[in-house]
């Protein structure tokens, strides 16, 4: 079975483009590469032409997921796996390939109906090295892709079968939390390269937003610390305080984006080696910290996660 190799890009549908450009550049430290004629914004975080395409289409949610594969052969192989599983696959048009800046592309929907794409041959710019508009050391990407994202899916079992048995990803671990008697929170984490997880999901049928958060991993703990204090200085709502996760060992905090979903800003995650990794189970999300906060300007009300 051919596996997708990394999370290549994410498409976001937002309502306030000006707020997003400001947030992405002055808080996250992403760089604007291009403004498209339709008002979309291409954002860079490494040598890729873009890792985010932000569209002024108003949903304030994930627009599409872009999974990368190595080459055209792998693209055909994954398309065959999708077809064999009964998933309708649409070849990308020349115009779509041009907009995404990729050599080849297919489109389909995941089991929750989330628009998804698999591509190969992204445009990369080693001739124009990434420079963050903020004084940070940059992001850990490369073979680990842009980072990770967490979505709410209609049916966990169906989604596990799809991402594991059709897209070829591997389960890293499970986090099962009981925040109160009778309520459970079950998340499943998937990897497709040494990044501990590129995708995680929680079952929640027909949620108001599919996207819970995406994560950017910095090269230095100082980048996380300086951004944590920048958010507090500039009243960017912090939705979870600084903490360290049980499963990927990421030291991170969560901030609210102009679209309501969150960004996890982290450093120092452990990596997965498929030759030795064994699936694990956790009953807590964090070793320390990650206190859930109700966002408000000028102060934070706290409740224990
Ligand atoms: Fe995360």
Quick overview of this protein structure:
Helix content is 18%, strand content 38%. By secondary structure, the protein is of the alpha+beta class.
How would you describe the overall organization of this protein?
This protein is of the alpha+beta class. It has two domains: 6-122, Roll (2,3-Dihydroxybiphenyl 1,2-Dioxygenase, domain 1), CATH 3.10.180.10; 142-302, 2,3-Dihydroxybiphenyl 1,2-Dioxygenase, domain 1 (Roll). Helix content is 18%, strand content 38%. The protein has five helices and 20 strands. The protein has helices spanning 17-28, 72-84, 94-100, 156-165, 221-233, and strands spanning 6-13, 31-35, 41-44, 52-55, 61-68, 90-91, 102-109, 115-122, 148-153, 170-180, 183-191, 199-203, 211-217, 238-245, 251-256, 262-267, 280-282, 286-289, 293-294, 301-302. The protein has a ten-stranded mixed β-sheet. A hairpin with a 2-residue loop joins strand 10 and strand 11. The protein starts with 5 loop residues before the first strand and ends with a strand. Residues 296-305 have low confidence and may be disordered. Residues 148, 150, 213, 215, 264 line the site of fe (ii) ion.
């Amino acid at each position: 079975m051919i596996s997708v190799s990394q999370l290549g890009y994410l498409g976001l549908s937002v309502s306030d483009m000006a707020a997003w450009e400001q947030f992405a550049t002055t808080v996250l430290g992403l760089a604007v590469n291009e403004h498209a004629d339709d008002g979309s914004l291409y954002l860079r975080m490494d040598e890729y032409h873009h890792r985010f395409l932000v569209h002024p289409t108003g949903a304030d949610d994930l627009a599409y997921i872009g999974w990368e594969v190595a080459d055209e052969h792998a693209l055909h192989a994954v398309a065959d796996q999708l077809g064999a599983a009964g998933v309708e696959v649409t070849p990308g048009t020349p115009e779509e390939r041009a907009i995404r800046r990729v050599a080849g592309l297919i489109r389909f929907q995941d089991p929750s109906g989330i628009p998804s794409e698999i591509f190969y041959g992204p445009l990369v710019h080693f001739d124009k090295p990434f420079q963050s508009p903020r004084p940070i050391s940059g992001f850990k990407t490369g073979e680990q892709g842009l980072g990770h994202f967490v979505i709410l899916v209609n049916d966990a079992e169906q989604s596990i079968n799809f991402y594991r048995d059709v897209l070829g990803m591997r389960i890293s671990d499970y986090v099962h939390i009981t925040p109160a008697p009778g309520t459970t929170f079950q998340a499943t984490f998937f990897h497709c390269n040494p990044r501990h997880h590129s995708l995680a999901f929680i079952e929640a049928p027909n949620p108001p937003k599919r996207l819970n958060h995406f994560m950017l991993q910095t090269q230095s703990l100082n980048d996380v610390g300086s951004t944590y204090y920048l958010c507090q200085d500039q009243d960017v709502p912090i939705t979870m305080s600084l903490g360290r996760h049980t499963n990927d060992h990421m030291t991170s905090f969560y901030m609210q984006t102009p679209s309501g979903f969150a960004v996890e800003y982290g450093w120092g995650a452990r990596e997965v080696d498929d030759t030795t990794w064994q699936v694990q189970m956790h009953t807590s999300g964090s070793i320390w910290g990650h206190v859930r906060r109700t966002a408000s300007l000028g102060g934070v009300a706290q409740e224990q996660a």
